[in-house]
Amino acid sequence: ALHGLSIQFHHLVMDGWGTTQVMQAWSEIYQSLSQDGPAAETPASSYADFIEDSQRYRQSALFARDAAFWAQELADLATGARPALIERRAPALRSGCSSRPSPQLPPAHLVELPLDPARYAALEQGAKAQGWSTFNVLLAALALYFGRISGQTQVLIGVPSLNRSGQRFRHTPGMFTGLQCLRLDLERGATAGGLIQQASAQMQAALRHARYPLSELAHALPGLHLPGQGEVLELLLSFERQDYRLPFGEARLEGSRQLFSGRARFPLALTLCEFDGGAAPALVLEASSDCFDAAEAGLLARRIWQLALRLSEQPGAHLDTLDLLPDEERWALVHGLHKDLATQEAPNTWLSQFRHQTGLQPQACALVWEGEGGTETLSYGDLLQRGEALARRLTALGVGREQVVALVMERSPELLVALLGIGLAGAAFLPLDPQAPTARLTAVLLDSGAQALLLDAQGPPGMTALAELPGLHARCLRLPLAATALDEARPPNTAAQEAARAGDLAYVLFTSGSTGRPKGVMVTHGALSRRLAWLARNWGISPQDRAIQGTHHGFDPALVELLLPLSLGASIALPPPGRLHPRRLAEHMARHGATFGAFVPSTLAGLLDAWAAARRQGLPPPSLRVACCGGEPLSPELLRRFQSLCQAQLYNLYGPTEACIFSTAWLCTPSAPAAEAEAAPAELQAFDVPLGRPVDDTRIHVLGPEMQVLPFGVSGEIYIGGYALARGYLGRPELDAERFVPDPFQPQHPEARLYRSGDRGWIDANGLLHFGGRLDRQVKLRGQRIELGDVEAACLRLPRVQQAVVQLIQDPGPPHLHAWLAGPELREDDLATVRNGLRLSLPEAMRPGGI
């Protein structure tokens, strides 16, 4: 027969050692009853004796001596804000609130990692030969791991002690365990052996002062508490060496195990277990669900064990040279995430694909819009004819390969003619916002070296100044061209007849610059074609589809709506010019049956309001089949609303302009209905929407300050590689060298580069990238990338302003920029002048909403 013996106590009344004493007494009583032997002896000292002894200790000189030791040991850490070692990613904690909504401890992910007995024995023998213990090695490994991933050199680790005052209370059941706060200095222990030796010395010193309670230490040094949190320790390392081979008559022990509560008292607790004479060594990890997910916890146990082995086997190695990752995990991060991605060696450009589609169906609809007389259309053949006419005019003006042509135009059919004509002339297009201040447009045009400027026939107010720019006044064209231009004979052997090559420059987009000078991002046809090819395949775009052009063409997501349909035989629905209210965009989508589009979350929120109102009126659901969202974080609430109102597939995309539209994608999985979500526990209601996995021709790495690979689940800077990166910044070699760096993970391709995004993120155990904010002062507002330094520079150029600080304010109300200005002669009466000055120098999205 198989029998089981289970014993469980609350930790308030019993510790692990006391539990073994109860079991030992149980065994002795059983043996005495079955064999008429002597009954078990009662311990000489009771728990009441221990309480009295503890009270005497608090009044003794020994207590004062221990207090002085710990104050000297840790006082310097209590003088300022001590950063956390472990990042908290639970939804309730990401906003800075570190307390849980209820007093209950968070659930713990339990991981038991059996240790190979032979390697464990070798580690133990090697440690003993150096005068250390296995526990010292694990203590050093834990400190090194969390010190490195957090970028800190001082690491505090809690270590339990028996606290039984020698032999007197050794056999007394009860809760005696004390908690010590060990400090390890990674700079002082520069080598593996040095760190282990430091851990050993710290342990020995702490044991001489082990009776001093951690609660007293926290009271005496309140600065030890982590900012905004009620705890001192984030890490706990304990050692359980128990022998459960107890006699119970003729019964034979088949196995034993220790139970854990499943609740996390610390962000991370690690227990080294040696049961039954060391026959089954194991590491048991308890990881708070506020800080880790289950898959990451399993990986973490293996990392710490592998790091302990490396420390023991390479005592002379410098700490910086020791890899935190097991070889398997490193391969998964560097190569495994990218092994199934496709690479296009020589992709067709969107121009050649457009020509192909025109040859197949010249009469097919390319564009549809609302004209003065109703709905109007433009066919593929007519669009090509007008584009070729513009290309001939540009070629006659001397425009050709690797040159830039700027267009300051509103949304209209002529915008598509301009993009096509520039491309057919072999040049790169530079789209600019006609609503932007003339001064900023002028600066960008001069910086770009544009060889020509395209404007609407009427043109917005203030465009006269642009046409008079030196060198551009003779190469300024207004669209549409005169009818005679469409009938001109096409001259032979012109650049307009040549096919654009993958390495040619396709477009330039200017983004906000941290010093106040916008920077132009140069993207090639090859990079653009690779992105469009991924979308075409994954979205299944066909000639029956229609894009809605709602994104401003000055942002690269607009290329999804403009160039993707034209390269695949689909059509584009063009809303009226100017800023679009989401309600009008929704109406236009419904009127023209748009099936795909690209949105920023702020626009998507307005669309959802319009769709909800349409549903209440009994109108049909949205015609969308597939859509993408990017530019700023997509909230779980917005995703749930989208999925409740629309049946379309929604992709969450991530990627800066320097990586050609997007770098990762995640097809949003169906979420719980709103009613179910509201009924779920608070910690399950919210989650962050992943950014997804790298797309074809792309590599994603999350790296530390020294470009070291960071483990799954650990935050660092997002680096982007692959063949879809921008060529660089227009005329800014110093910025190229700073942001585009050689790719150390592809030594076989010396030309390979990585782009330093400045974004913070982590890759989860499923290979999904998550966004964690910025490492600098760049912000996103309504999908637009804004360098706060750019806005501050504009403020400082104003009269009487000598100091300026600008921040993004998220609450209360809608997000907006706020500027704080100072100057000895600056008065409140000057605010109107300040606002006027900013209106003349900054685009609307970059102007502070509050001053």
Architecture overview:
The chain has 851 residues and is an alpha/beta fold. The chain has 26 helices and 31 strands. Strands 17-18-19-20-21 form a 5-stranded mixed sheet. Strands 22, 23, 25, 26 and 27 form a 5-stranded antiparallel sheet that branches. Helix 21 (636-645) links the parallel strand 18 (626-629) and strand 19.
Task: Summarize the SSE layout with pairings.
Layout: H1 16-35, H2 47-58, H3 61-74, H4 91-94, E1 108-114, H5 117-129, H6 134-150, E2 154-161, E3 178-185, H7 192-207, H8 214-220, E4 235-242, E5 268-275, E6 282-288, H9 294-313, H10 327-334, H11 350-360, E7 365-371, E8 374-379, H12 380-396, E9 404-408, H13 413-424, E10 428-432, H14 438-448, E11 452-456, H15 463-467, E12 476-479, H16 483-487, E13 505-511, E14 519-524, H17 525-539, E15 546-548, H18 558-568, E16 571-574, H19 582-592, E17 596-599, H20 601-616, E18 626-629, H21 636-645, E19 649-654, E20 664-667, H22 674-679, H23 682-685, E21 693-694, E22 698-703, E23 716-722, E24 728-729, H24 733-739, E25 740-742, E26 753-763, E27 769-774, E28 778-781, E29 784-787, H25 788-796, E30 803-809, E31 816-822, H26 831-841
Parallel strand pairs: 4-5, 7-16, 9-10, 9-11, 11-12, 15-16, 17-18, 18-19
Antiparallel strand pairs: 1-6, 2-3, 5-6, 7-8, 13-14, 14-24, 19-20, 20-21, 22-23, 23-26, 25-26, 26-27, 28-29, 30-31
Largest sheet: number of strands, sense, barrel closure: 5 strands, mixed
> How many whole angstroms does the radius of gyration measure?
34 Å
Percent helix, as a range, is: 25-40%
Gross geometry: elongated
Q: What structural category do the secondary elements indicate?
A: alpha/beta
User: How many angstroms separate the termini?
Assistant: 81 Å
Strand content: 15-25%
In the sheet with the most strands, the strands line up as 17-18-19-20-21
